[in-house]
Amino acid sequence: MVTKVLTIAGSDSLSGGGLQTDLATFSAEGVVGFSVISSLALIGPNKVEITAIPTEIFKKQLASIEQVDQFNAIKVGLLQSVDQVLLVSQFLKNYIGPVVVDPVLAFKEGQLAVDQELIDAYLDHLLPLATITTPNIQEALALTGSSEVPKSRTAALVLAKQLSQRARCSLYLKVGNPEKQEEFIDLFFDENGHRSIFRHHSVETANNHGAGCTLSAALTAGLAKGESLHDASMAAADYTQMAIAHGYAFSERLAGNVLSNWSVKAK
């Protein structure tokens, strides 16, 4: 039986994030990937330009993908408008299976301009349909309306709990190192309030573009293969750590990408 996974995401011109990373990770994890393109992301060294796919074409892609009998899991990445959020929410309402929402509201290259209407659409329509959401700190702050970056592990836990309750789904929060330690942490909250802290050592590299997409794609693949939410999250953290460690440069002038299909290379 083929395990089928769908990603609804933006296309990355440098192939480090977005649907290119999702499909590479799916393939490395042994699942078959399908895609719906939400936007074209042009990644510069200090700037991100996003062009949304016209609404009618986006609708037709979603209609086309309905020809697939059943997906074992669905990942939702970059959505560029309230219309896209509502269309995806409608698409997911009749879907029975794991849904991972990676709310792409901030890039390493700079904060995206996101209005409150889009954030409200995520919170009111999309996230309640998710099994788990995987924001970074900046995205979590945007979704909760907070402005103060957590300076401690305790403060990060408070933020994670607040967002999990507001989003009405489980949460994987990519925290980083709020206490300026070599050890990075990610926080996991399930819908019952149970929490876990995933610890890993920081990797000294500039080649970390696509780490967030790799993590959420690996988590999606794990859920598609029947892993528990906690186990899939923990395995995704380990997978992403290795992808960062195998990161590669594609230019002497620019930082590079994580190797999202590193496990294929290792074989």
TrEMBL record:
It is an enzyme of class 2 (transferase). Keywords: ATP-binding, Kinase, Magnesium, Metal-binding, Nucleotide-binding, Transferase. Pfam families: Phos_pyr_kin. One of its GO terms (molecular function) is kinase activity. SUPFAM superfamilies: Ribokinase-like. It catalyses: pyridoxal + ATP = pyridoxal 5'-phosphate + ADP + H(+). Its EC number is 2.7.1.35. Residues 12-251 form the Pyridoxamine kinase/Phosphomethylpyrimidine kinase domain. CDD domains: HMPP_kinase. Belongs to the ThiD family. This is pyridoxal kinase. It comes from Fructobacillus parabroussonetiae.
